[in-house]
Amino acid sequence: MAAPKKGRRPTGAQGRPGRALAIILIAMVALTAGMFLTKQTTPRLGIDLAGGTSITLKAKSEPGKPDAINETNMNTAVGIIERRVNGLGVSEAEVQTQGRDHIIVNIPKGTNEQQAREQVGTTAQLYFRPVLAFADGSPAAPEGTPSPSPSASGSGAPKPGDGKTSPSASPSSSATSQGRALSEALKAPAAPTPSPSASESKKADDTKAPSPSASAPTPPTGDEAAAAALQAKFAALDCNVEAQRAAAGAGAKPEDPMVACGQRGTAWGKWILGPAQVNGQDVKDAKGQIDPQRGQWIVTMQFTDKGADKFAKITGELATKQMPQNQFAIVLDGQVISDPSVSQALTGGNAEISGGFTQQSAQDLGNMLSYGALPLSFSEDSVTTVTAALGGEQLKAGLIAGAIGLLLVVIYLLVYYRGLAFIAIISLLVSAILTYTIMALLGKGIGFALNLPAVCGAIVAIGITADSFIVYFERIRDEIREGRTLRPAVERAWPRARRTILVSDFVSFLAAAVLFIVTVGKVQGFAFTLGLTTLLDVVVVFLFTKPVMTLLARTKFFSSGHPWSGLDPKRLGAKPPLRRSRRTGSAPAPVDAKEA
To answer: Are 54 and 104 contacting, i.e. CB atoms less than 8 angstroms apart?
Structure first.
């Protein structure tokens, strides 16, 4: 009794092909519905098919670093720029070196082109500097009331509701206080621009000739001269002029004080800043996100262990000072992007910047800080618009070639497999629907963009899918040639065909995975599409082709071996049924030998 039960298991399995068909039908309906719900009814196209923007960046030599432009730094810059652009959702962006000192960035049309353009060449040299003085952006001494500045808070630090903006008092309304702060930063013994009263009281008895000006009669020291030059530059700086904004912090070393411009709300301001205390390499991670409690966009930062110690030290020192010396400026590529005030030491290795951020500005800053600073400075050499005319012609030619190939496959199936060709064609159609809907959804989900190599991968997949059908059909025919009827032949052929199909698809998928890993750019599109369609081939064969074949084996057209079914026993040269041959005395031994 045990043997018959074992023999009935395949029959029970083949008796429920509707379940597999229901699963793949539900998947197709869900994917199609998702495509329409997300309003992404067509795949995103790459730059070669849709056009876009091509940006050429040229590396600039830094003073004192003549050997900075080398292959290592250029490759590092390419990786950082690619991560930045893809972090904006601009997938299929091509970033590659050209020559010794150029990088080409191709951004597909329909993506965040302007936002990506602003970030691709940004060096993202980040420094945290203490604020020594602040004024509005016009070329005048720091007078008047500044606009509120954002604040910084750390993990575990309290966040009082009235501590998020700086007081409205003037941070430094006299040249004396500026000079004192600047002298302390330079470790000078005296302020670089002393007041007239201090100068007279100091030198009246020792100098016979009257002083023609408020400046000290003795030659200034190097630190005093540098401080005076910095204050003069600060007073003359007009941050409302773009050229002056760009040049304000250019060439400043991290260990030296500097002047810088920045934007507070809609107005420009200018700062005198002390030496850098923390740099961007001390930031482990950063991201822009919305604070659910306050409903505003903030930038959260996580410091490295070393950076956390530095940040705790500098914020502890700043918390004991008065405005504006209790603020630190976050300086990105020479421009102040935020100057939060500090009321206590921020420990724990985490901090957040709040105040005045929009969603885009918060995410842009977090993106640049997360992916790091470029090892080189770059300038835009050229920006050109790429048309899709050439790619459109190539796509048209590729689609024509694919249609011709598909037509030849269909003709071959009809001529050689006849009725079985119907199953193969419907299976190809199901595979095409699944491939199209998934590609459309991936464009919205992960930024996948269809380019010419990806189209080639989809065309190659036609042959891979058709090969799986042929393997199964040939196994069924082999069973019929052995004298079996169609229904048992379908079930006996499936295990042998299944192993062959899985091995073949595994090799194809492995090749696609290796190609995707070891290549860059457009070739990855080919590998990705090839791998995706290979996986879908397994899904279609297991959940559609095999169940449909099981159902059709029950119909009279196929089970009777109609000449147009492709399974005609006479046409296939079938032997007499195995059960009849076993009734003869001499039949069992030859049959066993042949089956072996």
So the answer is: yes
CA distance 211 to 502: 96
Write out the DSSP string of 537-561.
HHHHIIIIIHHHHHHHTTSHHHHTT
- Sign of the CA dihedral 426, 428, 431, 432? negative
**Which amino acid would we find at residue 252?**
A
Q: Do residues 331 and 250 lie in contact, with contact meaning Cβ atoms separated by under 8 Å?
A: no
Q: Is residue 334 within 8 Å of residue 249, measured between CB atoms?
A: yes
Rounded to 5 degrees, φ, ψ at 259 are: -110, 150
Give the pLDDT confidence of 503-558 residue by residue, as tens digits: 999 999 999 999 888 876 677 788 888 999 999 999 999 999 999 989 888 888 88
Q: Which DSSP helix (H) or strand (E) runs through 272?
A: strand 267-273
Query: If 0-12 CB within 10 Å is exposed, 13-18 middle and 19+ buried, where does residue 513 land?
Result: middle
Spatial contact of 569 and 480, defined as CB atoms under 8 Å apart: yes
Q: Quote the CA–CA distance of 458 and 355 in Å, as a whole number.
A: 49
Tokens 């998702």 sit at which residue? 34
Contacts of range 581-585, beta carbons closer than 8 Å, 24 or more positions apart: 581/483
Report the C-alpha gap between 276 and 281 in whole angstroms.
Answer: 12
Full strand arrangement of the beta sheet holding 296-303: 151-154, 350-357, 296-303, 283-291
Q: What predicted TM-score, i.e. pTM, was given to this entire model?
A: 0.53
- pLDDT number for residue 122: 63
Q: Rounded CA gap, 522 and 559, in Å?
A: 48
Kindly give, in sequence order, each residue whose CB lies less than 8 Å from that of residue 133, ignoring residues fewer than 6 positions away.
Answer: 142, 171, 172, 177, 178, 181, 182, 234, 271, 272, 324
Token pair 């597999």 is found at 20
Q: What is the pLDDT of residue 148?
A: 45
CA 208 to each of CA 200, 204, 216: distance values in angstroms, whole numbers, following the listed order: 12, 8, 14
Cβ–Cβ under 8 Å, residues 51 and 386: yes
Hey, how many other C-beta atoms are within 10 angstroms of the C-beta on 511? 14
